[in-house]
Amino acid sequence: MTKKDTAKRVALVTGGVGGIGSAICKELATKGFKVIAGYHPAEEQTAQERLKEWKREGLDADIASGDVSSFSSCAESAKKILDKYGHVDVLVNCAGITRDKTLRKMSEDEWQSVLNVDLNSLFNVTKQFIDGMSDRGFGRIVNISSVNGKKGQFGQTNYSAAKAGVHGFTMALAQEVARKGVTVNSVSPGYVETAMTKAIPPEISKQIVSQIPLNRMAQPDEIAYVVSFLCDDRAGYITGTNISVNGGLFISF
Ligand code: CAA
To answer: Is 179 exposed, middle or buried (0-12, 13-18, 19+ CB in 10 A)?
Structure first.
């Protein structure tokens, strides 16, 4: 690794203009990473606004459009990123959606779209960068899962299945690339104050919060802090693991 390489790590965060993703981008940029926020083409306006905000704050950030549920879109987006920056050292797979319904009411599209965005995206995006990280002998991959991938949640068979799958992907890939200096971990947030949780009906949301020992939802930067810890050069001996950031909602080891 040359001095220049270690001076500025390049980090790509998918879902980088969303609630948790934006906080991760900001945290990493503040810690000295060059950050690229991936966003869905439909989020163009939000992405441009975020970029302006980050530039105003003096952060080293950029944005990159792409659909994580499409392999070809990810390949196209990755090519542009690699042409511009040469490599990606850190990948945070954060893009995610919900389509909450009980299984009896869930349509095939609601099942497939959640599996595509929340789980198949890990294949689509990670495939674009894993060779580069392995060849360079350094990489940090952090996959954002969920407390509901560990405990299951009423109304989320699609989301819980996808997020549980994220753990399987993480544990398997960690073994494959450990000897190449690439670590692969997952972070499982609990309920975080974002647009995603604002969509939960208020009475259900209130009932969920009452079950959280900390008695509140998390703030996005409480998740971002843990992600940035795993992205640090010094976190090189942590791989294949999962860190819960759930306020005690699901306590396990
Ligand atoms: N456990 C057991 N029974 C429950 C229940 C629960 N948690 N919640 C509702 N029920 C019961 C209701 O009392 C009702 O019973 P009756 O039929 O006897 O009246 C029945 O189940 C309702 O079933 P429906 O199929 O009609 O469900 P619904 O349309 O009322 O609501 C839902 C379904 C939209 C999924 C709603 O329950 C909901 O929004 N739940 C919240 C899901 C959730 O936590 N989402 C997280 C989003 S944020 C996120 O995902 C981020 C993250 O990583 C944490």
So the answer is: exposed
In a domain, 246, yes or no: no
List, for residues 112-129, the tens digit of each pLDDT value: 999 999 999 999 999 999
Tokens of 245: 């950031």
In a domain, 248, yes or no: no
Count of alpha carbons within 13 angstroms of residue 179, beta-carbon side = 1
**For residue 146, which atom of ligand 1 is closest to its CA?**
53
Rounded distance from Cα 207 to ligand 1 centre (Å): 11
Task: Give the pLDDT band of residue 7 (cuts 50, 70, 90).
Answer: low
- Whether residue 251 is contained in a domain is answered as no
pLDDT digits (tens, 9 = 90+) for 45-73: 999 999 999 999 999 999 999 999 999 99
Q: Is residue 252 part of a domain?
A: no
160 CA to centre of ligand 1 in angstroms: 13
Question: Is the beta carbon of 147 within 6 A of some atom in ligand 1?
Answer: yes
Q: What is the CATH number of the domain that holds 115?
A: 3.40.50.720
Range of 154's domain?
Answer: 3-241
Mean pLDDT of 21-32: 98
